[in-house]
Amino acid sequence: MRRNLLPGFALGLLVLASARPAAALDRSSLCWRDYPIPTAAVNYEQAFAAETLAPDPITIDGKAITTGLAEKTIDSLLGGAASVVEGWRPRSDQEQCEYLLEVLRQHANSMHLYRLGDLKAKRMSGLFRAAEWQLPGAGTLRAFFHKASDAEPDRAYLFHLTLLPVALDKVQRRKGKSYVLTRPGVPRIEWNIETNRVSISTRAAGR
Amino acid sequence: MPGKVIIIIPSQGKDNNAFEDTARKLKKEVYPHATIVRTVLTDVGEDDDKKTTFALQTLDGHEFKWSTKHDFSRVITVSHGFMDDGPNMAFGELFKTNQPWGSKDGRGQELSDVAKDFWKSVGNSLNNRGKILLLGCSMGASAYAGNVAKASGRHVFAATSSISAGDPKSTLKLVKSIESGHAKDPMQDFRP
Question: Which end of chain A has fewer CB atoms < 10 Å from its terminal CB, N or C?
Fold first, then answer.
């Protein structure tokens, strides 16, 4: 479960980042660059076997968990309350850009680089939170939430799905034109690379 | 389907074999008259004066120059890339810049002089109905693709979010959608 928690060092940096006074947008900051830090080219099979994914959506027995949903909605879809990883904290768009850079340092591959790059382009500011759910037999789902102000509804903007690791040779590419990876056993888990959808099915195949 | 086509791929950096695979499959299945060319980046100068230059070569090692080439219908890049500085022709390498046709001062607002010259040359080599396809992540998510359209005077198709340009199957689907006149999401048409 090593990957389920950000190392303390990173958390420390995140707290420092959020404690700074709001700063104006600093385009010279490293975080705004297209390629802010060296990252590894993602190996999809390896990532699916034993790394943290950033999918959207995740479907669990047909129920779709997508960005834009509120934490309470995800609670009800997953049938249980989340545990809090980070409580609500204010961040400016500059601070959020630095925060995303710290997340990238924890997962320094091209999959996270491009996903986080798309997010930083939205220049979100306001209040931020992270929470996670245990998915029995599958792993851990962490969701990152944002709301523009206290009065606004919260919405998930990023998911981290850390599946229980399997050996690389257990990951297979499904036959067909689409790039879909599968893992054996129950629950059945598939990752469509093209749509970035992860499907988890706890029901027996061929039901 | 279009006639003369140039497909530009990196020769350096991570995943360059995957991009070449995509380029070869594009030539085989969509653009039978395509010429595949590779970029070669080189750093010249010292310390603060260091600059990254680029050259283009055909797969058999011959130099490729825009000035002697005309009437292309498509110019396509297949590479890593991102929203502010465009195609990354040496992902993970430590050149002064791996994005040779990037924005001015890396700020993402307007093209650098080198980039303007490059895309203008590309535009001059394309016929009136010619198009540029930027295949890679998010090059249409900010100002980049629109600036390329402006500099080249041609339509530019680019993704507004991440795509897997090194995966031939999914990339061919996107390209075929553009060629059928209905660009599939996240590819978007940027007009000059």
Answer: C
Nearest CA in chain A to B81: A34
Which of B103, B142, B162, B185 is the mutation pick for testing A, counting most A CBs within 10 A? B162
Domain that holds residue A191: 40-201
Query: Are B82 and B90 within 8 A, CB to CB?
Result: no
| pLDDT for the residue B87 | 98
- Give a yes or no: residue A16 inside a domain: no
What's the number of domains chain A is made of?
Answer: 1
- At which residue do the structure tokens 């040359």 appear? B121
Answering whether pTM is above 0.90, one says no
Task: Report d(CA B29, CA B20) in Å as an integer.
Answer: 14
pLDDT at A204: 60
Nearest to B162 among A27, A33, A118 (CB): A118
Subunit contact A41:B15, Cβ cutoff 8 A: yes
Contact B137 A117 (CB under 8 A): yes
pLDDT digits 0-9 by tens, B129-159: 999 999 999 999 999 999 999 999 999 999 9
Q: Complex ipTM, two decimals? A: 0.83
Distance (Å) from the alpha carbon of A22 to chain B's nearest alpha carbon: 21
Domain membership of residue A4 (yes or no) is no
In a domain, A45, yes or no: yes
| Cβ pair A35:B106 closer than 8 A | no
Nearest C-alpha neighbor of B138 from the set B159, B157, B111, B164: B159
Residue A115 maps to a domain? yes
pLDDT tens column, A7-26: 333 333 333 334 444 456 77
Q: Distance from A117 to chain B by nearest Cα, in Å?
A: 8
The answer to whether A33 contacts B161, with C-beta atoms less than 8 Å apart, is no
Tokens coding B3: 């006639």
Strands (E), chain A: 52-53, 58-60, 63-65, 83-91, 126-135, 139-147, 155-163, 172-173, 180-183, 188-192, 197-201
